[in-house]
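Q: Okay, next protein. This is Putative transposase from Halorientalis regularis. I've checked the sequence twice, so it should be correct. Can you predict the 3D structure?
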Amino acid sequence: MGANNLVACTTTTGQQYLYEGRDLFARFRETTEEIARLQSKLREGRYSSHRIRRLYRKRTRRRDHAQDALVRDLMERLYAEGVATVYVGDLTDVLSTHWCAEVNEKTHQFWAFRAFIERLSHTAEEYGITVEVRSEANTTRTCPVCGEQDDTDRDGDVFRCLCGHEAHADLCASRTFLEQQAGKEVGSMARPVRLKWDDHCWSEMPHSPERASPNEERTTRSTGNGKLASVGAA
Ligand SMILES: [Zn+2]
């Protein structure tokens, strides 16, 4: 669950996907600020204007477009992997407890979490994939290597544990969540696929060597039936 990434996904087939949300959120916020500016200039007794309503519509349309495209891109990838069930972390219990105001804004307004789950479920159905919403309490602070929960630290996108484990925080949490749901370890992972939105489609970003994870080797493993995936959305 991250402030900078829309979705982090791990599969039991050893794939990881990360959909980056920084630019998208920055634009959403720009529009929100413009709306606030226009509202402050309204004449007394007026609460909205043509221009304000248009900005609201534009903001929503842009978000929905990116969300639609994300869900479809992800489902195509999961379908190709043979995934049968997707577990989605339920953010509602996490939100009320330790999330800062900024992240709350991201989740409630921008990401529209409930709408995302609905969209995900509808699209998954087309691919014959089942979606299950589960609590993901503690996944963000649990170390996947040693199981530590209290002495772990998150700094931006980086997760660190006293045992020496260091990883991408959202991908790490997504993996822990999957292991909790699957009831087993998921083994080594291929290099994560990072995706970026360009107003039309989500496309893969080139790998940056300095950000490479320790689990780089690509492994193809047969996991039998019932392949699983976890999706974290923030
Ligand atoms: Zn650890």
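A: Here is a summary of the prediction. Helices lie at 22-40, 50-81, 92-98, 101-111, 113-126, 169-182. Residues 143, 145-146, 148, 161, 163, 165 surround zinc ion (CB under 6 Å).
Q: Noted. On to the next one.
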